[in-house]
Structures
1.
Amino acid sequence: MPVELKGSCHCGAVKFTVQSSTPVPYQLCLCSICRKVGGVGGSINLGAHTNTLKIEGKENISIYKAIMNRDTPEQKVASSERNFCSKCSSMLWLYDETWPELIHPFASAIDSDLEAPKTMVCLKLDSKPAYVRLPEGDKKTYEGYPADSIEDWHKKNHVYKA
């Protein structure tokens, strides 16, 4: 059974709940977008069910659509929407119409207790500057994206909440 995640921004203007079958914060993305919107260490996204999202303070949410391949001939606007608090700039969740049934809360916005993973997955090392340090402890690293989706990883590690 999915678990309820409770989240909020730093200033408290936005609060939300959402049901998640993939609540373990195991995957640290080090791409330039996640580092710049989430902070120097990147972002950890969870998975959740879009149709269960309940929001207080929706009027305080703004959306950022990232620029992909910035300053290159391949530059384009991403289809994904990064939702953040317009008052304090806290990143809340990512939504992409490509997968309308899914929403990806930023673990940093979750107030509920989250299970610590035994092994971290660090991805997009091909985008990581030398000064960014990887987390301590057991980890698997990928230059790009791993083959397993967030759901696949949760199922393989027996932590999926059906």
2.
Amino acid sequence: MTGLKRYVLRLFMSLKYITANVVDRNNGRIVATASTVEHSLKGTLECGRTCNAKAAAVVGEVLAMRLKVEGLEHGLGRGIHVDVQKEIEKKGLKNATKVWAIINGLKNNGVKLILDDDGSGGSQRSYREERFRG
């Protein structure tokens, strides 16, 4: 299975910081990363006590640029996998907007993302719509 899902997006969020990594599952190496911890990003964002969805979108855009520099925006033809439902469940529903902001930042900058399903029968889109309905 690691051959099929070679590159995977991993997100880490705290109250103050947002970090996004693309991991090569074949060797466990982080191939690209972006974070609000970085001085270059921290200075441009208005993150007081917490980072918002705007900061998450910037993290996604910076990560997309770094993937392009590495030549990995298409994940060597296979795409970069992300299990949106799993990421939202891990981070809590209050961070769903931030998760989607990172994903949209990557997609809008030309990164080929493959949104994985956890196998429960529901798609990520229906999960997202369900979350915002009620």
3.
Amino acid sequence: MCNNPKRRNDSWKTREPGSNEFISALAAGMKSKLIVEVKSSVSPSTIALATAAKHTGARFVCILPEAALPEAKRETKDSGLMDIVDFKTGDPTEILQNYEKIDFSLVDCKNDDYPKLLKMIKVNPNKAVVVATNLAGDKEGLGGHVIGMKGKVPVRSMKHPIGKGMEITTIGRTNKIERRNQGGGVQFGAERRGILMKKNVASKSKWIVKVDEENGEEHIFRLPRPI
């Protein structure tokens, strides 16, 4: 048990840095205007998504338990992003019903109700991404099945060894994302030839995504930055 508040605070910020860089880059790169996160506890992904929302001017809603709210607010305030996050507490199955055409959503699969929560997300049918995190072991996410989207737009789900297991589901033609650096070191976008990079000069690694032009599948690799 860590009794040093500063050390505890630093630990909160640095857990899984690579996966959170990726989440932030993905949300910012697709120019999200409505971002919704469902968490079971405090997590650095909230700061990552708040950073993306600040770059794109998005509304960011973070749904979490009442018990986690004080620490979440404290960490968000310390990061200078308090005015970006709209915290909501209560039953996530009820709160999610208030939001439609969600561009980017993240569900923490530590929550026992995560399968139901994933299916409840009302995505933007034109272009959206749903991220399921903490899919350890045999846990499964959407698996390409998004309610109301069958046969209407392309839907693809892939599980990646990022963090403790992450599934990324893309709805619509999300591959044609413009490459843009919005002042925060975030670059993310897919080129028609199938290679995309997100690179941060301060980062120790870079993300490369290769897109299969025939089936639209995205293969994500994290490469260490040369010393």
